[in-house]
Amino acid sequence: MDEKIILKDDLLRICGDVIDKGHILLCPVMNEYSIVKDFSRIKLDASALPAGTSFKCYVFPKTEPVLYYKRSKSDVQLIDVNIDRKNIVILGAKPCDANSLNIMKHLFNWDYSDEFFNLREKNFIIIGLMCSHYDEYCFCTSVDSSPVSEKGSDIFLIPVDENKFAMRIITEKGSEFISPYAEYLKTGDENISKQITENVKLPKVAFDSNEVYEWLGENFESPKWEGIGNLCLSCAKCAFVCPVCHCFDIVDEDYSYTEGRRMKNWDGCQFGNFTMHASGHNPRDIQSKRYRQRVNHKFRYYVDKFGEILCTGCGRCSRGCPVSIDIKEIVSNCKD
Amino acid sequence: MKELREHAKELLEKGEVSAVIGYSQVSEKRTKPIIVTDPQDTDQLVFNEYCLNNLAVYLTKARIKVSCRTKDKTLKLAVTAKPCDVHSVVALIQENQIHREDIHIISFNCHGVAKDFGFEFSGDNIASKCINCETHKPLYFDKIFGEEKETPKASDDAMERIQEIERMSHQERFEFFKNEFDKCIKCYACRAVCPLCYCQRCITDKTIPRWIESSSHMRGNFAWNIVRAFHLSGRCTGCGECERACPVDIPLSLLNRRMAIKAKKSFSYVSGRSLETPTLVGSFNEKDNDELFM
Questions:
Q1: What is the pLDDT of residues A132-154, one digit of tens each?
Q2: Cβ <8 Å between B214 and A249
Q3: DSSP assignment letter at A153
Q4: Residues 6+ apart with CB under 8 A from B201
Q5: Do A230 and B63 touch (CB under 8 A)?
Q6: Contact between A231 and B31 using a beta-carbon 8 Å cutoff
Q7: Residue B289 confidence (pLDDT)
Q8: What pLDDT score does A275 carry?
Q9: Which residues of A touch B215 (CB under 8 A)?
Q10: Are the C-beta atoms of residues B271 and B235 closer than 8 Å to each other?
Q11: ipTM reported for the complex, 2 dp
């Protein structure tokens, strides 16, 4: 591993250069990942709560056209979309967000390679920041991650003191990104940063994901789902704030009789019409079946298909749930 | 608290209600909804300043309605409701969604609830609906608990913002809401938590024809948020749940409260206050103010 030391001021200078080059700089500011134009607003605070929403919308937008069409009496003409290829640099991504693209990547390259996702993902540089915060909803340690996990980051920062960061260069992409700024980097000492990461307080491990996997396979008809289904109000807030939920819906929007576009929109599995068939039949007609699907998809089906849990343990879904349904608590109870 | 639990237990044991919809404590300054059907579980019920949810939303949920019907009779549902939540219950009765005799209202003398979970309830952390609240005692109830206490003082910032928006030009106002609606991600949490959004099939879910585009671009977001505000005009009781649920902090109560002010000024009507009055949208009087028509 390549470890360096960088001063905070120098890091901000790099940010300034990133902005000057016309790249997009994303930072957690005021509870969301926002595009930063003025880098003095950047607070690299390892003890901050995860932002209200993840940066998923920058690689998988809430709505986007996938093609335009023109119709005439005899023909339909399809027009391609220009995908925005801007480089995006994310500074200060929490470990639970940083790994999200790696997890979603499987889906977007499964039976079909989604060029919209792939192109944007290729142009992403993720600079992760160690996390020293956790609250009652965090459970990254239960889903094979941790507040000091480098998974998903191209470059990983560990605050040494107020003005200094230890910088670990993880991927080739990260090394390529940082190479023009070699003058700012000083030789680091792995032992010092190791000492810091070892002293980070970890959220308690709430469940064993393997046990949950087994339980889910055997308890499809468990009466537990009904209780949750009665409380859940069927909104998609949990899915939309989730850094790895990736379901989408395709709809056509006509501008006129002859022109229109095909849109790809976020969709949520808790909506009543999510699995509604054209016949009127709905295999997940009641809320308990929909909630069961949510948990199964995250902790069993995705594992079966891609070998990874579809959850980063950020706790956003529980923190934000209007009726305080806590997924950590539910999954912890996935045992007999 | 003890009386509340005993009362709930008695209701369930005597078979007067099929379920008690109430609050249970999650942590010191946080509660969550709970649906109690077993008398043994009534000791989980609580009521305090951290009972933010408006539980009237559960009264129209089909599953719960079904589970309260036994073979030979329909059992009542008991709901714990703050005085402001009782307005929602009343509005649902006014709109013929539930019958008064099917609902057992357990209410409280209320001096306000916190704005956010996890923080001490005080003048700095008080829900904006509580600041100038006039109903500290429920207008309708079957059982009432709690002592009367003074509401913490706080300034009504939301009202100031409404007045600020009223002073804006049309263009400025449009820009303001454009920026706010731009954030909308169409998770429909506002719809899900709203006791008065009880449509079995919402207009946004209709696809042939599609009245409201499901895409969350500007047009789709405007269509959704404005249609919802229209549908709630003269109906919204101001519980503020939509704003609390919104993951992207759209100030929905500004819209809803402004519409409620308009309804009051134009028709002297406040939603959910009286079981005897017909609804505003469901009644017509030739003396009605028609200034609103273009």
A1: 989 999 999 999 999 999 999 99
A2: yes
A3: -
A4: none
A5: yes
A6: no
A7: 80
A8: 94
A9: 63, 251, 253, 263, 265
A10: yes
A11: 0.91
Token pair recorded at residue A167: 């910088």
> CA dist B158 to B119, B127, B227, Å?
20, 10, 22
Domain residue ranges in chain A: 2-62+84-198, 209-332
Structure confidence by residue, pLDDT tens digits, B236-285: 999 999 999 999 999 999 999 999 999 999 999 999 999 999 999 888 88
> Which chain A residue shows the shortest CA-CA distance from B197?
A233
- Taking an 8 Å cut-off on Cβ atoms, the answer to whether A235 and B189 are in contact is yes
How much is the pLDDT for B74? Answer: 64
Q: Residue B60 has which token pair?
A: 């129209």
Q: Are A267 and A274 in contact (CB under 8 A)?
A: yes
CA distance B26 to B49: 13
Put simply, whether B35 touches A (Cβ < 8 Å) is: yes
User: Nearest CA of chain A to the CA of B64: how many Å?
Assistant: 7
Q: In this structure, what token pair is assigned to residue B86? A: 């009782």
Q: With an 8 Å Cβ cutoff, are B245 and A322 in contact?
A: yes
Task: Give the pair of three-digit tokens for residue A189.
Answer: 């000492």
Would you call A57 helix, strand, or coil by DSSP? helix
Full DSSP string of A67-127? EEEEE-SS-EEEEPPPPP---EEEEEE-HHHHTHHHHHHHHHBSSSB-HHHHHHHHTEEEE
Residue that has been written with the tokens 């949810």 in this structure: B53
What pLDDT sits at residue B294?
55
CB contact under 8 Å between A235 and B191, yes or no, is yes
Query: With an 8 Å Cβ cutoff, is B53 touching chain A?
Result: yes
The shortest C-alpha distance from A233 to chain B (Å) reads 6
Can you give the pLDDT at residue A335? Answer: 85
Query: Closest to B35 (Cβ–Cβ): which among A231, A320, A322?
Result: A231
Provide the chain B residues 14-33 that lie in CB contact (below 8 A) with chain A: 26-27, 30-33
Six-digit token string for B117: 């979970």
Tell me if B196 sits within 8 A of B235, measured CB to CB. Answer: yes
Query: Minimum mean pLDDT among A30-39, A113-122, B64-73, B133-142: which range?
Result: B64-73
**Each residue's pLDDT tens digit, A314-332:** 999 999 999 999 999 999 9
Q: Which residues contact A256 (CB under 8 A, 6 or more apart)?
A: none
Q: Which two tokens stand for residue B148?
A: 């009367």
> Mean pLDDT by 10-residue block, N- to C-terminus, for chain B (294 residues)?
94 91 94 93 95 94 62 78 96 93 94 93 93 93 93 91 94 95 95 94 86 91 94 94 94 93 92 94 85 68
Distance from the Cα of B1 to chain A's closest Cα (Å) equals 21
Give bridge partners of residue B281 from the DSSP assignment: none
**Residue of A323, A326, A328 to mutate for B, most B C-beta atoms under 10 A:** A323
B248 part of contact set with chain A, CB < 8 Å: yes
Is the CB of A235 inside 8 Å of chain B's CB atoms? yes
Query: Which B-chain residues 131-150 have CB contacts (< 8 A) with chain A?
Result: none
